[in-house]
Amino acid sequence: MDSIFTKIIKGEIPCYKVAEDENHLAFLDIMPLKEAHVLVITKKQVDYIFDLEPSEIADLNKFAQRVAKAIKKTVDCIKVGVAVIGLEVPHVHIHLIPLHRIDDINFSKPKLKMDSETLKKMAQKISEKFV
Fold it and tell me: Are 104 and 36 in contact (CB under 8 A)?
């Protein structure tokens, strides 16, 4: 069965796309911990990150690094934090979250509510910085 992320890849569910290549997609989390919270996924539906081939993990991280640099150029933050949890959606994904303090990446905190226009503008800004 297709994961929600596979449905996003197929265009069945919309997203606020930040970047894409042949094997990866990055888009804004619609229930973010912080403004510019991005999810980076593989287009290949695999549940557990360590079931990927070593080269696929390396490629995913290289793509995520480029996205993180774009986030850092776009929003005020000290660093961009990285989290791989893998419990909420059975599809490999990396959370990239702008950080000012460690608590910014606390997943037990309430999520932000952001309107569609704000998300659209943020996705565009990050996308423009992606190289």
Answer: no
Torsion angle of the four alpha carbons 77, 78, 82, 88, in this order, in degrees rounded to the nearest 10: -40
User: What domain range is 114 assigned to?
Assistant: 4-129
Give the CATH number of the domain where residue 108 resides: 3.30.428.10
Q: Are the C-beta atoms of residues 56 and 44 closer than 8 Å to each other?
A: yes
Three-state DSSP class for residue 24: strand
Beta bridge partners of 94: 40
The CA distance from 119 to 94, in Å, is: 19
Q: What is the pLDDT of residues 15-64, one digit of tens each?
A: 999 999 999 999 999 999 999 999 999 999 999 999 999 999 999 999 99
